[in-house]
Amino acid sequence: MSKISIIIPTINEANNLPLLLSDLSSIQKEREIIIVDCGSEDKTIDIANIYGAKVFISKERNRGLQLDIGAKNSKGEWLIFLHADTRLNHDWFRKINSYLEGNKNSIYYFEFKINHKKIIYRVLEILVNFRSKFFKQPYGDQGLIIHRTTYFKNNGFRKIPLMEDVDFLRRLNQKKDLKQLNLPIFISSRKWERTNIFLQAIKNWHFRRRWLKGESLKSIYSDYYKK
């Protein structure tokens, strides 16, 4: 069994994927990289093959489904879920290795950093890391490192169109064991460059609140992606 399985959902990520896969190439042993693609029309799958990743195809554009397909086809003792537009430091695996030798009930995520120099992003980083650490609510962008036993015991990511990360974290029995690593993950600023950062944060909070009150994810999804 591999020590870790790194699971990455993709859709048209040819510009970002080579950067992340280069970061991951520093680990050659005890790992597998799994790409779960849902219909890329660019060179995403070709790039995954060049880097020796295992490629699986999802027939639906659904990130929760993609993540779960990756987990169910993995062989690693630990599962690491990453978004394709993130970056890691070259020594990231050496630094987390000691954690993987420890408590298998612990669930880890990375410190939130945005790959952009604007001061406004430093403010967002402070707010997100505060929320993650003290309210146990990290974003999916921050990655998730979880033992496979814990993942499957909690029924993994569900096939839902939105907030699959929020849904999964709410169902974790070991919420107290959710811990932030003292190690950054660098997230692309692309999704914030098209909008007002704080207005988007308020909208996201409002969408989560609607969902927690029992509103249909289908209607929330429609509003979330409304042009």
TrEMBL record:
Occurrences of domain Glycosyltransferase 2-like (ranges): 5-136
Function of the molecule: Catalyzes the glycosylation of 4,4'-diaponeurosporenoate, i.e. the esterification of glucose at the C1'' position with the carboxyl group of 4,4'-diaponeurosporenic acid, to form glycosyl-4,4'-diaponeurosporenoate. This is a step in the biosynthesis of staphyloxanthin, an orange pigment present in most staphylococci strains.
Family affiliation: Belongs to the glycosyltransferase 2 family. CrtQ subfamily.
One GO MF term attached to the UniProt entry: glycosyltransferase activity
The organism of origin for this protein: Prochlorococcus marinus CUG1433
InterPro entries linked to this entry: Glyco_trans_2-like (IPR001173), Nucleotide-diphossugar_trans (IPR029044), Trfase_2_rSAM/seldom_assoc (IPR026461)
Domain of life: Bacteria
Stated name of the protein: 4,4'-diaponeurosporenoate glycosyltransferase
SUPFAM superfamilies for the chain: Nucleotide-diphospho-sugar transferases
Lineage of origin: Bacteria, Bacillati, Cyanobacteriota, Cyanophyceae, Synechococcales
